[in-house]
Design a protein that fits this description.
This protein is α/β, with parallel strands linked by helices. It is built from nine helices and 16 strands. The protein is globular.
């Protein structure tokens, strides 16, 4: 499930991404395309249908339908006179880190565990790898001050890809002058690969990796200071990167309060099997959120009406991306969370066409209400 949030949204790229996602859990018929779901289908949460080209109000919570025709957001165009942020990059060699060293990879997908159909038996081997990191630094950043920031998964391309959007939003004072840290994954996808180990497992390990391995290198390499205030920290991602963003905020709520997801993989993709979280990320909406005190997490969700539906070899009933995001919206409502959820008509996995319209809005919505800790 590779990230498409920062890439040009051509039909060919969207097709490639959808195909790579399905490979994570091979379907019975490889040629089958996910069905198009209706927003008012039985079991769906209640939605408000918006006019084509509209995004929800910034002060609104709840569930909204957009599309199927999308209007590219004006914030995507460079504007004369708007100060331009700069982008820097660096590489992290796995051999130089304490966490996720070495990485893992597999040659074969794996087989269903006969003693537990919710998981796979996968043979892995250790690997060394390099992780690329792109960093956007706003023109308004003042040396020596602590900056709010957003970690984006499946980097590093978003540092350049989002630069114009961020330049415009920051210049218009619609978001604070945030640093964007686009972190590449460790390679591969899903069970038995390094990306799956980082993004799909139900623990705070990846948040700790970002905290101890990535952020110090950002500060040293790019000459910025990053805030310790969890309200000034956001995590963002697509597909498994989306589930990773919420997992970071859930298990390390002392570090992150803001989450932005597209086509979040809130399904059973965790590996190896952890009996404390037997349903993987499906457990977020199945047990964890509904049975836990509300945490200070502000979350943006989105899914396509033709998003992934993958019966997969496990036949566990926990690999429907639309159903997973619907369920997420329901439990967030029940527990009183601040959230917006977009059901994007005419959109497939990663909702690339819809992002052309809503992504600047989503970034602004996620950061709404933030003020520096010193001002409180």
């Amino acid at each position: 499930m590779k990230n498409l949030m920062f890439k040009p949204l051509s039909a060919s790229l969207i097709t490639v991404l959808a195909c790579s996602s399905v490979l994570a859990q091979p379907p019975t018929r490889k040629s089958a395309q996910p069905p198009t779901r209706k927003f008012d289908a039985p079991g769906a949460p209640p939605f408000k249908v918006l006019k084509e080209g509209d995004n929800p109000p910034l002060d609104a919570y709840g569930n909204f339908v957009i599309g199927p025709n999308y209007v590219p957001a004006p914030e995507r165009k460079k504007v004369e006179g708007v100060p331009a942020g700069k982008v820097e990059s660096f590489i992290i060699d796995s051999k130089e880190t304490k966490l996720f060293n070495p990485g893992i990879a597999r040659k074969a997908f794996g087989k269903v565990d006969p003693n537990n159909p919710k998981t796979l038996i996968v043979e892995t081997h250790p690997i060394d790898y390099q992780r690329r990191v792109g960093v956007y630094i706003p023109a308004q950043y003042k040396e020596g001050t602590e900056a709010p920031f957003m970690v984006v998964h499946d980097g590093p391309g978003q540092a350049n890809g989002y630069r114009t959007i961020l330049d415009n939003l920051i210049h218009q004072k619609r978001i604070p002058p945030i640093v964007l840290i686009a972190v590449g994954n460790g390679g591969g996808d899903a069970q038995g690969h390094e990306r799956g180990r980082e993004y799909d497992n139900m623990n705070g390990d990846y948040a700790e990796y970002i905290e101890t391995e990535v952020l110090p290198r950002v500060e040293k390499t790019c000459g910025v200071k990053l805030t310790k205030d969890p309200d000034g920290r956001a995590a963002m991602g697509n597909s498994s990167g989306g589930s990773a963003a919420l997992i970071m905020a859930w298990f390390r709520n002392d570090l992150y309060h803001r989450v932005l997801t597209t086509s979040g993989t809130f399904v059973n993709q965790a590996w190896p099997f952890d009996p404390k979280y037997p349903d993987g990320a499906w457990g977020l909406h199945e047990t964890l959120i509904p049975n836990s005190p509300r945490k200070p997490i502000r979350i943006f969700l989105s899914v396509g009406d033709a998003d992934l539906l993958n019966p997969n070899v496990m036949r566990d009933g926990m690999h429907d991306w639309v159903e997973a995001n619907h369920r997420m919206a329901k439990v967030l409502t029940a527990r009183g969370y601040e959230y917006q959820y977009l059901f994007c008509r005419g959109a497939r996995h990663s909702v690339g066409n819809a992002q052309q319209q809503f992504l600047p809005h989503a970034i602004e919505w996620v950061w709404k209400g933030y003020s520096p800790k010193t001002d409180r």
